[in-house]
Amino acid sequence: MPDNTLPFDKINVFLMDVDGVLTGGGIYLGSQEMEFKRFHVHDGMGITLLRAAGLRVGILTGRTSEAVTLRSKELDIDIVYQGSHNKLKGYAYLKERYGFEDHEVLYVGDDIQDIPIMKRVAIPVSVRDGDTEVKRYAAYVTKKRAGDGAIREIANWFLLNRGDYTQIIEKMINQWEEEIAS
Ligand SMILES: [Mg+2]
Description:
Layout: E1 13-16, E2 28-29, E3 35-36, H1 41-52, E4 56-60, H2 66-74, E5 79-81, H3 87-98, E6 105-109, H4 115-118, E7 123-126, H5 132-136, E8 140-141, H6 150-162, H7 165-181
Parallel strand pairs: 1-4, 1-6, 4-5, 6-7, 7-8
Antiparallel strand pairs: 2-3
Helix pairs in contact: 1-6
């Protein structure tokens, strides 16, 4: 059932936290500042779909790791801010740097440091395993868990509600087919 209460057609920026949103929140720390994170391929394809749909996709995280830099490059995520201890400050910086405003942002968070941003954006989303307080501010809470397809679920939910999910899927399939034909 489409949700007509949210401004899906106004959204230009899909911004998300990393730990506990794009990953399950577990952090594997190794020696020499190595940090391992587990990403889900379904989330990766969700980000690809959003980019194919013309959205700018961004990451805003309090931690800093090479793993996030690598994953961002793999997925062509152009808006990346790591080491943002005050998330709202980081968010303000990104708005200034990339030239967007609250009313065109969908933000995905899981913990209380995300709440100040969720209060401001057009569509605030929480993952299923987000903090109870965070869910109070969410317009949508995923059924899937963080790091296990929650971002893909949001991407599908967003595009279905905006009404161009089928066209985007067809566009991507056509692109792949044309690539081997040429
Ligand atoms: Mg988090």
